[in-house]
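User: Hi! I have a protein structure encoded as tokens and I'd like to know what sequence might fold into it. I'm fairly new to this, so please keep things simple.
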């Protein structure tokens, strides 16, 4: 009889514990369902997406005229400083030669460059001792791979950057045969009337690579990749809706996608990593593009 009573008591205890445990699990689930997640959203757009690449080139004078002595001599006096702007026929320096003093003058308007000699120094003949260069317009030389060579078009105008400044580069020639390094030469010109760019300076050019027409675009930060699946969350009726997407192209902060998503939808850009499909949300900020 005692065994029967103990068995009944044990059954009651087990049943009570199971019921309490189920109640606790239910309460936990209810709390999870009631949890609201704060998110930020941004509007989905539809427009062309241009994928861009960066190439680096070096500036040099558009043209330059070498200064060559007819015979060697010693510098007697220097009339113009290296780097100075000069006019045609301006006196540059005087050289003592066996045949007498020789006055060296500028052959054209430009800048007196690459002159490093000092008074009393001997200068050779038949090789350049300086140059008169045109630096109002600079030439920019690039060496690029065959893949990038195809991106350049003659007479195209590209954005270039130097010392945190921005300028415009006009493409003048595109090499069709690679040089000894296997790279293709590309050249362009940039105006430099304000002397903002030095000859020999490295500049950065932005080259459009691909354009996706009428692309549905979302901020790249909205993209979630998990378990081999790519998706975004759309804010709708205070809930997060999971939408599977395919990526077409990515350009830094914007990504072109395909999926059941349209222009004007509110895509979640912050807080999405803690969401599930159907999660309750509270939009705290609508971000700009």
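Assistant: Happy to help. Inverse folding works backwards from shape to sequence: for each of the 289 positions I chose a residue that suits the local structure. Here it is:
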């Amino acid at each position: 009889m005692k065994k029967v009573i103990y068995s009944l008591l044990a059954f009651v205890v087990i049943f009570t514990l199971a019921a309490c445990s189920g109640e606790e699990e239910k309460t936990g689930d209810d709390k999870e369902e009631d949890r609201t997640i704060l998110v930020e959203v941004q509007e989905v757009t539809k427009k062309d997406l241009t994928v861009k690449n960066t190439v680096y080139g070096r500036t040099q004078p558009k043209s330059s005229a070498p200064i060559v002595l007819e015979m060697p001599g010693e510098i007697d006096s220097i009339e113009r400083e290296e780097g100075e702007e000069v006019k045609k026929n301006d006196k540059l320096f005087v050289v003592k030669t066996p045949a007498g003093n020789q006055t060296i003058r500028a052959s054209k308007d430009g800048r007196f460059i690459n002159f490093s000699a000092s008074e009393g120094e001997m200068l050779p003949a038949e090789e350049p001792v300086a140059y008169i260069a045109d630096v109002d317009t600079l030439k920019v030389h690039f060496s690029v791979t065959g893949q990038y060579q195809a991106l350049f078009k003659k007479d195209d105008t590209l954005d270039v950057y130097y010392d945190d400044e921005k300028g415009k580069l006009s493409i003048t020639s595109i090499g069709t045969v690679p040089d000894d390094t296997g790279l293709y030469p590309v050249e362009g010109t940039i105006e430099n009337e304000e002397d903002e760019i030095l000859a020999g300076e490295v500049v950065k050019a932005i080259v459009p690579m691909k354009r996706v027409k009428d692309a549905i675009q979302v901020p790249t930060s909205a993209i979630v990749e998990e378990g081999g699946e790519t998706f975004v969350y759309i804010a709708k009726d205070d809930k997060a809706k999971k939408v599977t997407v395919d990526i077409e192209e990515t350009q830094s902060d914007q990504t072109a996608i395909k999926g059941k998503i349209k222009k004007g939808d509110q895509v979640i850009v912050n807080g999405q990593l803690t969401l599930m499909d159907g999660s309750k949300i509270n939009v705290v900020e609508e971000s700009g593009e």
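A useful reference point when you look it over: Residues 33-51+212-286 form a domain with the conserved putative lor/sdh protein from methanococcus maripaludis s2 fold fold (CATH 2.40.420.20). Feel free to ask if any position seems puzzling.
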